[in-house]
């Protein structure tokens, strides 16, 4: 049986999971691949930190270059994260003719184009199943399972931390700040939670799915990104009253004139599959022209789910290496990395999108105010579906006015809001959240 040697760079949580799976599922992996996956060396800057697995001392080094320069290593698994040193490791490994497996969505969102071009030039594979949706096999689904389709839309709950926070806020009526502290204490959110709660992590993942589904590399900085810091228990409660939940969605839609792409909180109708994705779970709802609506669901993070995706890439590549080691000269069975699109498809500006909206204004409770607000919307051609106004205070005062609109152009909505803000006493409270009608 041929042996495929693996070098693991980064033995943190996911790296420990990889070591564990390679040990505990050794036999089934050998049966499935026809090759032996041998973890030859492990590089980590902190060999003494506490881990859920024991690291074999003789395999351990603090110098990742040793792995990259080791001619006997076939596959480098990069689990360092970030876009600086990790890029050096990935590029160095590819330049040395090694296949790479990475979970690094930030790296691929920013440098995917050059990394894949280099890998093609060097004739090596880059596996990145763990970069989106943790253990959910969305990457191979996008590469193979949906290959017969024109993808029409993607709606992903792809950041577990944000989904956990929004779920807790919904269930307990708590403030964002309090739940964030709880999420940090429970180990869901990082000490610096900005990538998670500001939508950046989900946008990294979205750009990878856009590359796979539409064959284009977006300029990452151009994706519209909003996080969940501005979501209040009040909006969650009004949304609930209207039959919706608020979720942080990563969305891509195919239009005749281009691609809509954005990460933002949205109202999702209760009773739909996406609305029921709670806690730290992830789900990706994909609609293809042939297959129709589909949804993949599972753990988007964590030691074993993410390691499951990493090892699946190593298995895929090892099988391929095995086939040409056993039959030299035979064409390999490589799966396509992505479908290149010769026709460039522009990214549509958010202001040129059409959506339904949830609006909340803080307005003085006196005659004519609601009329003035609806007048502003009407003048911009925005049609109202329903209105809620509650909590009249004795002697006037401010009250929330909630309006649900029919489909409207975002440009028109923004200009109507500008007008309403000119007469509202507290324009800082004006809120708009898009409504996404998915099944
Ligand atoms: N921090 C991510 C999340 C997991 O909260 O979903 C890694 O992609």
Query: Residue ranges: pLDDT <50 for 5 or more in a row?
Result: 329-333
Measured by DSSP, the beta-strand proportion falls in: 25-35%
Work out the helix count. 14
What gyration radius follows from the Cα positions, in whole Å?
Answer: 24 Å
Q: CATH topology of the largest domain, which one?
A: Dihydrodipicolinate Reductase, domain 2
CATH architecture of the largest domain: 2-Layer Sandwich
- Helices and strands: which structural class? alpha/beta
- Look at the structure and give the CATH class of the largest domain: Alpha Beta
Query: Helical residue percent?
Result: 25-40%
Determine the CATH superfamily of the largest domain.
Dihydrodipicolinate Reductase, domain 2
Distance between the first and last residues' Cα: 48 Å
Q: How many domains in all?
A: 3
What is the average per-residue confidence, as pLDDT, rounded to a whole number? 92
Question: What ions, cofactors and ligands are bound?
Answer: L-homoserine
Q: The biggest beta sheet, please?
A: 11 strands, mixed
